[in-house]
Amino acid sequence: MCSSQMSEEGLRIGGLSSGLAVLLNNDEKKEGSQKGRLVSCCDDFGYQSLERTLEHVFDLPYKSVGQLSTPIDTSVVRSILKNEFLKFNAKPSITGRSGLCIVDNGWGPTVVGIDEASVCGDIRIIKHPLLVESLAMFSSARANACVWEGKWMYEVILETAGIQQLGWATLSCPFTDHKGVGDADDSYAFDGRRVSKWNKDAETYGQSWVVGDIIGCCIDLDGDEISFYRNGVSLGVAFEGIRKMGPGLGYYPAISLSQGERCELNFGAHPFKYPIDGFLPLQAPPFANYLATQLLQCLSRLLDLQCMERAEHISVEKLRRLKRFMPIEELFDPVSHGVCEEFFAALDAEAGSAEYIGRGSVTSFMMDIFGTQAPHDFTSLDRVIDLFLEFRGSHRLFEHVISGLSYGCKTAPLILTECPYSGSYAYLALACHMLRREELIVVWWNSADFEFLFEGFLSRKNPNKQDLQCMMPSVWWPGSCEDVSYENGMMLTTTALSGAINKIEEKHRDLCRLIIQFIPPILPPQLPGSVFRTFLQNLLLKNRGADRNVPPPGVSTNSVLVSLYTVILHFLSEGSAVGDICSWIKGGGNNVGSNVGFLHRGGQQTFPIGLFLKNDPHRTDISRLGGTFNHLMKFHPVNNQEEDVIRWEEGCTDDEQDRVTHSSRQKPCCCSSYDVDYSGISKVPIRSMTKGSCSHGTPIAERPTHVAAECSTGNLNDEIADKPSSSDQAESEFEYRPVQHLRVVPRDSNVTSATLREEELLDTMVMLYHLGLAPNFKKALYFMSHQSQSISLLEETDKQIRERACSKQLKHLKEARSIYRDEVIDCVRHCTWYRISLFSRWKQRGMYASCMWVVQLLLVLSKHDSVFIYVPEFYLEALVDCFHVLRKSDPPFVPSAIFIKQGLSSFITFIVTHFNDPRISSADLRDLLLQSISVLVQYREFLAAFESNEAATQRMPKALLSAFDNRSWIPVANILLRLCKGSGFGSSKLGESSSSSVLFQKLLREACIHDEELFLAFLNRLFNTLSWTMTEFSVSIREMQENYQVIEFQQRKCSVIFDLSCNLARVLEFCTREIPQAFLLGSDMNLRRLTELIVFILSHMISTVDAEFFDLSVRRHGHSLEKVNRAMILAPIVGIILNLLDAGSGTECGEGNDVASVFASMDCPDTVHCGLQYLLEYNWAGSFRGDYQEKLMQLEKFSNVLISRMTNSPEVENWECRSDVDTDDSMCCICYACEADAYFVPCSHTSCSGCITRHLLNCQRCFFCNATVMEVIKMDERAAL
Questions:
Q1: Could you tell me the CA-to-CA distances from 533 to 526, 587, 619, 763 in Å, in that order?
Q2: Backbone phi, then psi, for 146, in 5-degree steps?
Q3: Reported pTM
Q4: Which of 23, 96, 187, 1007 reaches 20 to 30 Å from 374, CA-CA?
């Protein structure tokens, strides 16, 4: 061997020449990248460098390419590929596919699909090849393939996460309306909703699944086992020892779905996302897949060489290259074209292979070229796209690549170690870059699945319990006993996850901007935004009814609605941040070039009322405030108003002295900054951090400078150029580029659609909040509440462990502590996730601003009856929900003292003026407003907002009294109690705050005095309701006593009814203190009814069970004995009596009805006497703070007077002997205490006027014959006639 050959052989590394075997780890250029680079390094031994380079590109053995005598071109490359490449890259022979039988159902002998003959119920294929949905209550189906030997699998991609039974079944498994896969012998299934495996009976197995999960269903007929995988992770062997089957009688893939459930079945038509070693797909991949994959790898190696050649800095010094050989840049064109010609020829040769290869090999190839993390290789990707687009069939291929990227967004999980470039980020980044080419976005738009794929891009996979454990391995919360290092670990974790969420949301916005900018190539020409508007309308149309308890089939996944809401919220709040988005987005040219968020502009506001009045398909089924749309159009038609625009000045609905707008000196909370010490307020396990960092698991971005200027009243155009935004920063970091070849339609063009207005986006955003965000916030607030409760229980258990010495008790306490600790950890993880994904600061700013905008819109529209009744109900529901979400957010958005005062005082105006608005047809909506008032008035800061609100002080007192009816009495009673609490007998020690609203107490008193009819009606309903609640309470507690046990449901019922009774008694106590003349002056009917009610309550208290059983019955879990006991109902009774006695001794009511006489006239003197003694002897020390002896002495004096009167009263003597004498016909046969001095018309039945008056308060029919009473005439009036 010559020396030159020896030298060359000696320099070979791994079978390659020395010039090709220099492996560069490109960590310096790509952080975190594991990909190596090969550089052609031509030295004195590299006279064959061109041939050796081709060998490296095509992965051929050394010197398999002879010396080339002709210049390199496409024909030479294809010749090498056909001769040498195919020789060394022949497809391996297929083995192991025996034991499989596929029945041809018309799709081909190798295609696996649903056997239509096996379907029971109603399973519809909503997208080919196999995205299926159940339209029946329970549907089942088998595939057209069975297996009896070997190891096989298929994947199920979950579009919904409800009840689905996935697995394997034989032909002997019967499918019915109630039985499906896993409900018979030789039938095996897994259900992640119920976390169970099924084979006739259910057993706990696996993990709960979520939307976007990929379930691998594997059957090992060699080992007689069936197992399941979730996202490539084994859930363990589910079934062992399954029965052996013969050829043609094997196990079929089978599924059972409940109504509305959707999943995509992949038997092998697409590459598996998580292939399991040793298991084969039921449907073999196309023959061309192997060759196509090898050719793409050739392109990848070629691009690697090119990247190294153009790199400015590499890890090894470039050596000189002999001039007679072609550089890599010149080599790239012929080699790449030759490879692509062979690649597309392979696709054309096998029908149907483009989809499999496009979604698999091509998508993976482009992801590898582009890079999954920033900075991305835009240059190489652009070169590949340009190259592919030169070939026929590339459009079809790119359509499948886009489909593969959309599919990846649905199923990509967040992985902590990959943050912030985790989850769907890489797929979105690649899609956004590709779709900046007009040619490719047209390809996507022309596809039949455009909207389906768009939803896929907007999907985001949420974690289950096990996923959260992986994402947040260490958990910490304030006051926890965990290792101190967990706190720092938690901070780092939440920061990383927040960054990942931010990246994904940014790419969602980029994608939506591209769609908004896109002008479809159709005639007549369309405006920018027309495609996006159509998508929004169709999305809302398909999601009608998504807010029902059982949503209809076909609704979008929740993450799509949330993502789209987030995108629109950012556009409207933070500004679009893309200069190329036409002024059409800015409301027909207003503020052109301004980047001020729509929600923060202030000044004059406008809204096209046609959004509510038009009969659009996606709106007709939506309930309106006044009823259904069809009903309103029939009875309240609107004429020629669809094009009208309503205008108002921001803040016009607020009191002038307290008005806070974007134009006022004091800015709303959404446009102000507050340095809140969240570490002292928040329950979350994160401390406040330095400026610009993340706090509480939420990246709190500094308020951009343009937001501070959003409230300016001057010209903003001069400030726009220097305003930063997240997207501006993204352009420099990620090479953000506008759509290429963007066409601009002149304003005077003949267009078929109007401008996509920001008000229209706002309308859609409110709907999306109602459908998508509200359920998520409900879950988040549940976990926050449960976390607080669990922490309290854990701390209480720790305290008991420290105090207990008994080993047996310690064992039980430690077991309980372990359970509580696990619950706390789970809640902390869930709360942190919701805080990261839902409660970021910019979202809170946008939500606050949208609340301001919507409530002012509703108040303005409420002055126009014809339009107000057409407002969709979801506007009101979303407003109230969003308000309370912000109020309860943790960490708090702003201090509670200014939450309402600086921007949302109009919310108070709206709820107090509309909670009994008859134009709102839904009683549930009116109750929602009442509940809001009930919640807010219990806080001092919010109660002050009511006191300073003109509408509240003028309208709320009377409105509350009139709203106390059969439906709304509970929230009204709670509101009245909270307005008047703290001043009753014993209230300072019974869990009631000493604070109360003196102003509203005065207003309520004035309302009762000035409108006697209203007050008497309210008092009558109060008497009836308190009597009913005490009766229900007595019956429930006696039922438990008779059964000698406290049943949880009955105990909860007793506790609730007892609380309600106490509240009503406190309200009644307030009435006797503030309006005693209603009882002491004039007719004694109210005083008599009040006395009867007091005696009725006392009789239940003294005749009920022993104190221990009573306390057990009324005290709910977590309530202390100090706060929940008999004193809660006894104290207001004492207060009522003392109030009447005090008023009776005064000058105003001194000559009125005698309280003692009325008590003495009761027909149960023993009950009255025992009840008063019970009150005097009760242990008030545990329920009363301060000097209460003086008040009890006053009660004792009254008791002595009462005993004296009852003993010496002739009425008592008459009552005692009444049973021994004949009944006097002139006496009232109802009360037997008064003379019958009135009769009914027309039936002429007689009774006393007192009984008749009381009866007619609640019923307009005769006591005796049930005839309708037309008139009541007193006897003395008839005699006078």
A1: 11, 14, 14, 12
A2: -130, 155
A3: 0.85
A4: 23
